[in-house]
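Entry type: protein chain
Record version: 2
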Amino acid sequence: MKLFFIRMREWFAAAPERFKRSGVPYLRRNLCRRQFLIYAAVMLVLSAVSFPDEFVEFNSASMLPWHKIAGLFLELRFVAPVVLQFTLLLLIYALAQFIPGKGRAVFLSLFLTGVALYTLGNAYMVIRYSCPAPEMVIIINSADAQEVREYFSSLFLNNKLFLFSSILFFLLLPVMAAWFFIRTKSPERPAVFAGSIAAAALLAHLLLPVDFPFMFWRHIQAVDFLHRLGEKDFYLEHAAKMVAAPDLPEGSENALKNRTAVAGIVILGESDHRGSHSLYGYEKTTDFEMSKYRSKPGFFIFKDVISATSSTQHSIYFMFSDARIAAKERPGKFAVCEWFQAAGASVLWYSNQRAHGAWASMAALIFARADELKFFADGTKNTYDRIALLPPVLKRYQELKQKQEPVLFGVHIMGSHYEQQFRIDPQWREQNQAKLQGLDIYDQTVVYTDDFLAEVTAEVESSAQPAFMLYIADHSELLHSDRSLRTPEAVYYEIPVFLYCNAAYRQAFPEVIAALKRACEKPYQSDLTIYLLARLMNMPEKLIPAQADILSGAYRPVPRWIGFGEVVYPEKSTVGR
């Protein structure tokens, strides 16, 4: 090792003179060859397509005209990193010229193959899955054993393995260079070693928190984790401001004092399409348990509700704050937690999804100041809702309703999240084979969620305190083909919404029950959820904008926007598949 550093020092000391005497003429001869021109052309193309996150603006199912896509190349934010990256790739080529003989051709062939695989793979993942390839390593590093198992299963099933093969190639480059340095006597060995290290550094962003505008670099800090979903700083920054300095409606302080206390529980579903629910007319039976409440008073099915967005984190921002998807340029002023707490209610959030740090999960951020904030997904429970989440939820809710105090209990399930084969625990599956007969894997997760909802609803039904259970999904089923985050396809937004109000609630608030009967048929979007929860929790009506309150006579349906406020949702529903 000592000899290695001595030789490296000697080489670098003499490098300027050697390069001037022989290196410059050597490079001049080689860079004029046809091989270089082909390499440069290929690398320029790869550099241009290595930033497909710039293309998330368009829907992969119905792409923009080519002239509009070409226009993106003319934007400075796009050109600058492409030029910088192209320069880096040319530098690596120049260093590779010092490899003697056939070794140079082998090195360049392997390098070009690795760059091409990774670049095209990254473009494929962003355009199709809204998930840049570098984020895969972040996901794995941030996840537990169960999520890693799910992710690698998805990897093999969706032809993404070539991405990891290219990563492996880059990581092996320094090893190859070290071997060449030790086994040969070429005076250019240090240049070969340095060139290989530079090539391997293209993937250093996978492990290091650096901010560099080349092909694969990401500003990898917790706040940027949501970039894999196409998240923009707008939502995270303003969510943080809402929590830190909420601008509450005037009169919110102690607004629930001396008013009938309600114990509400809102269950946030995951990737749930209402077209897979028999309560919405699906020909297969999936709502075995909740269907039993259909004939009971106090049970309501909202027939025409769509989600605010087609991703979980974005939907949480709009559902649990006063932000509106149709006016996304206006940030939300307050979130549900601080508003309800100021009014005098306790707020809890139990989640079977992962926190990934308070700055990287919208739920962890929005509910950062909740009276209780717990995340139960740890891998040992296999993210099964009935095993990991249901027992603590039932136990805690039993304690809360006995206090006869206002409380909003938020419960976030894994539901039908991709991949669905990991959502049903084996024991329950074995015991409920009759229910699952003839259903595909997605519909089976709907049945599993139905059982979860039924047990929570039964607890609400038995409460002597006025109580309700609201089930609303974050977004609809995610079909993993031709989907981008801004998709205007309605199927990704149509969600089920069930509400059950127990006998004590119906007796205490007959006017709310009457309003609910009228509201069930009205068009609705989940970015108004915070106001529905406020009415159900017995918040004074003067604090709730009447035009945004579906239980108010002043509520009027407005155009509902999908694709992040870029397309109006069509009036004709796609339910029924």
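Comment: The radius of gyration is 28 Å.
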